[in-house]
Specification:
Layout (H helix, E strand, L loop, with lengths): L8 H12 L4 H8 L3 H14 L16 H13 L5 H11 L5 H10 L15 H6 L12
Length: 142
């Protein structure tokens, strides 16, 4: 489901006042620039509850702040082979205690779903020889 924006209290009060004055959903919607279904939903809620307050959303608040999430994304972008445990330790040093699952959820929310590292670690010449020289393109440049 798509996130929707909340109407401010003034507009909702205008909708209710115009409804009390006897106007229909469509005419109220055209006058205020809102859809008729939005107007209808606001009026139905007003009839049921008799108040027009924005209630907070359900669920626990995020443990990782937007700044922490951007720090995680920056570290993963700069060092693709970093582990979730490294990210947990970084956040712990910054003062936020989270689990690896929370890190995983944050990465998924920002578009890194089931990603593996982008590149093989750079190999030393001894490793290249052990692989019969097949990894020449991955060797460190001196």
């Amino acid at each position: 489901m798509v996130k929707t924006r909340e109407l401010c209290k003034d507009i909702r009060d205008k909708i209710v006042d115009l409804h009390k004055a006897g106007m229909g959903y469509r005419t109220i919607g055209k006058q205020l620039g809102e859809k008729a279904t939005t107007v209808g939903a606001i009026i139905r809620k007003w009839k049921k509850v008799k108040m027009m307050v924005n209630h907070p959303r359900s669920g626990a608040p995020c443990k990782i702040s937007p700044r922490g999430a951007s720090m995680i994304m920056r570290k993963v972008r700069d060092q693709p082979r970093t582990t979730q445990q490294d990210l947990v330790n970084d956040l712990k040093r910054a003062g936020t205690t989270v689990s690896k699952k929370t890190i995983s959820n944050t990465l998924r929310r920002h578009g890194l779903k089931s990603c593996s590292a982008r590149k093989v670690p750079l190999l030393k010449p001894a490793h290249v020889q052990a692989r019969n020289g097949r990894s020449y393109g991955l060797m460190r440049q001196k």
